Amino acid sequence: MSASPNPQAAHGPSVPHKQGVSGRIAKAFIQSPLTPLLLIAFFLIGLLGMMVTPREEDPQISVPMVDVLVAYPGATASEVSNLISEPLERLMSEISGVKHVYSMSREGLSMVTVRFEVGEQMEPSLVKLYDKLQSHMDLIPKGVMPPLVKPKSIDDVPVVTITLSSDRLDLAQLRKIGLDVQQRFKSLPETGQSFVVGGSLEQVRVEVEPSRLSANGLTMSQIAGAISAAGQRIPAGDVVQGDRWFNIYTGAFLKNAGEVGNLVVSAANGKPIFLRDVARITQGESEVKTIVDNTLRTADGVFVETPAVTVAVAKKRGSNGIDVAKSVLDELKAMKGTLIPGDVSVIVSRDYGETAQDKVSELIFKLFIVSALVTVLAFVTMGTRPAIIVLITIPAVLLMSLAVAYVLKFTINRVSMFALVFAIGILVDDAIVVVENIYRRWLEAERTDDDLTADAVDEVGNPTILATLTVVAALLPMGFVSDMMGPYMLPIPVLSSAAMVFSLIAAFVFVPWLAARVKPKMAQLKAAADREHRQSVVIGRVYDRLISPIMNSRPLGYITLFAIIGAMLFAVALFPLGRVAFKMLPFDNKSEMQVVIDMPAGTDLFATANLARRLGAELKKIPEVVAYQTYVGTSSPFNFNGLVRHYFMRQEPWQADIAVQLQDKHKRKRSSHDIATLVRGVLTPIGKAAGARLTIAEAPPGPPVLAPVVAELYGPTPEIRREVARKLVGIFEKTPDMADVNTFMEAPHDRIEFVVDRLRAGMFGVTVEDINREIRMATGGFEVGSVQAPRNLEQAVIVLQTPLPTRVNLGNLGSLPVRSRSGSLVPLSELGHFAPHRVDQPIYHKDLRPVEYVTGDVVGHLGAPLYGMLSVDSELKKYRTPDGQIMRGKYFSRPADTNVSGFKWDGEWQVTYVTFRDMGLAFMAALVLIYILVVAEFKSFLLPLVVMAPIPLTLIGIVPGHWLLGADFTATSMIGFIAL
User: What pLDDT shows up at residue 784?
Assistant: First the structure.
């Protein structure tokens, strides 16, 4: 803004010239009545966009995953794999848009998981999958059940979970309340999938002793037949009587245990034998198959543990998670004291609406702070009137960028808000450059007319356009990052580029108009110019003293050059030296975590619950823990992490997890990652002593993966793959800083099988089907009907079985009667015997290749998977596999020959590699685009290289800065590097 020393330049007539597009735009809008209307429209449209755009914590990622479950009762794992899983895998791999096909085959069940490409939509993907299944239904082998299709997406993740607990109500009553609460929540608009975890189903249990059956000449099948036949009501026709028409119904449903007990099952000596005469009949809770408890820290610091149920509610796709969560919690308040009795404790165990609101509000606040700082900086360096212009244009640009987010179906989340915070420092340049040049030209000409203002805008128009396009060229290639991180990061290049384009529009349209209305006096311009001149002189002297010796002395110049090269080498060397770690994203500071418990397969439910309680006792000692829920034999409501890892399928008695809630991050000093590290150190030895494997599952800061460290093992035979997996588990456990080591293999355990003596059974006239049916009814909790009760949201079934004490000792079932073809009763002991048999190991496939998985996590200073993987690789040099191979992990693709032992690293590393690879390519593309733009502007091939030479030198500041601050070099660091 310095005045020209040439008076003629200051006062003489300007040379006419043809204005460019920027000058013509400024001239058209500088006095147009449309300009203030357009500025107001920017604000209104932006505010509307900010209000209507859905808000959530993380961006929406469309990655359809579909589970296809097929039951094959009685089949071995290998039979399931050969006859179901492998044919299904082949079919699913033929579908367009499929990225991976996984399968798990275990005794009697196949689960094939189809993961579609990122960006594919759920509905079209489901249509293609159903079409493929339906067109091949004729290939289903005999005895195989029809496939069950279970689609899963991020929209199925509950945004709110409510935990209800009471020490006065039984589990069936507690579950009924949970179901009523769920029903009320579902009446709210925009609520999606919901479910209830825990409690007990109401049942009518019919428990029959084998000896009483034999004494009365009955079998379990007869009892089941009598109950099933009695509990029926059907429309039987219609009749006309006179001038009236009536429907005819016949039969009646059973209503309670009393009616079930009064059923006649046989007769003896002319007298009826009632069901109550041969069975014990009760109505109430089902047998304990799962355990859910809530442990809450009271106001005085004491933890109280009570049985609980948890109600989980998700939102519909595209809805505002914050609004859905708020409506659910408002409805919850209305239900307290009415639908929810006063003796039931209620806590909100998850509220993603609140966390999303906190995160978005925090970033919006930072947006205002950064905007205010930029305005203050403009005030300090340029004066009051330029600061006013900056203060008006920045919010207008940011608000319009939020309107773009709504149009493009983005959400307001921490990534999109980061994009705008990130863009502020760049987008303000356009307005500052234009307003400074306007003031400079006014000062030179000592006049402030509109033509001069338009000419001033035109003078810097092309460089401003070039600078804006250069920034856009640097940012947009990031939008082509592939895989899971692609849609996660997409708001950054798109919204930042949109903000830059709007800032250019504002600089050419609003800045001249505003400058013409907040004109400083000429004396103020001269004073500002004098101040700027004095500052320039001081800066110039300092610069001259630093640079002149280097420019004038060849030895000093070489020393400086070598110093820069040395600093560059030092900065880059910090990576291989481990001073700065590569990591996907920095750890977040959440208010929840999960302790996943895997006892040895075959462990009893109550033994698992006992370990969970011991672990919970240690959690009580951590001051930041405010509550936790223990889920044994079932899974807690899954989060995005659990969705990808299929935690919702964890239903075995040896599986459990603890959902931990922490204090709000503003009320504690330690981060959630620090607390998770502490929890891991305290709980892992306890779990190890009990033979369990624990996983401390933190909510990931980015897209979730199967585990941070995953080794996909390939090999010629299942035995070799499992042997190598066991060895790799040992190496993982010995590797420093490797934690949460686990494998998908199950501990050896037995099933009990009734071995039929076919010869004796044939001689007695008893078929295998007869034997199977009687044993199933005696031991399997066989559902033979239901009782109809008012206001029941779940059916109360009638379960037929022998009493638990009888089932505990299978020898007691020896007297179980089985009816032969001749009508006589044959004791079960005469037809075979019970014997233990080893359960088959599950068989896993990925993309049609057999595979085993070993998983883990990396802790410590270099808490990134890459460093743990490198350590494991160095240890593997000493190990030779059973088929004679010395393995090295493949980092980028699976082994070319999967018929020999080998493995591929997957997990967080795969996402990290793809992201940094694509961002590196984006950086190269940005450099090429910038070079082309600068060549087009300066008409030189060499000058752009000189201009761009300092770009890699930014690492001299970036990498050591990470080292000094103890920060990892992450994807966000790469974004900052590209932006510089």
Answer: 92
- 101 and 93 in contact (C-beta within 8 Å)? yes
Domain assignment present for 449: yes
The mean pLDDT value of the chain amounts to 89
For 966, counting Cβ atoms within 10 Å of its Cβ (0-12 exposed, 13-18 middle, 19+ buried), the class is: exposed
Dihedral sign computed on CA atoms, order 15, 17, 23, 27: positive
Structure tokens at 555: 């030895």
User: Residue 535: which residues within 8 A CB-CB, separation 6 or more?
Assistant: none
- Structural tokens at position 358: 């906190």
Contact by Cβ (8 Å): 600, 691 = yes
Q: Which residue has the higher pLDDT, 660 or 467?
A: 660
Please write the tens of the pLDDT for every residue from 115-137.
Answer: 999 888 999 999 999 999 999 99
Judge if 488 and 546 occupy the same domain: yes
Per-residue pLDDT averaged across 703-732, rounded?
93
- The predicted-structure confidence for 297-337, as pLDDT tens digits, reads as follows 998 889 999 999 999 999 998 888 889 999 999 999 999 98
Domain that includes residue 543, residue range: 7-53+360-582
Torsion of CA 490, 496, 498, 504, to 10 degrees: -160
- Please compute Rg for the chain using Cα positions: 36
Which is nearest to 184 in space by CA: 154, 155, 160?
Answer: 160
Answer positive or negative: Cα dihedral of 184, 190, 196, 201: positive
pTM assigned to the model: 0.88
**425 with 533, same domain?**
yes
H helical segments located in 18-121: 21-29, 34-52, 77-80, 86-93
User: Which pair of tokens denotes residue 515?
Assistant: 């400058």
| Same domain? 453 vs 402 | yes
165/174 Cα distance (integer angstroms): 7
Q: What's the rounded mean pLDDT across residues 680-687?
A: 95
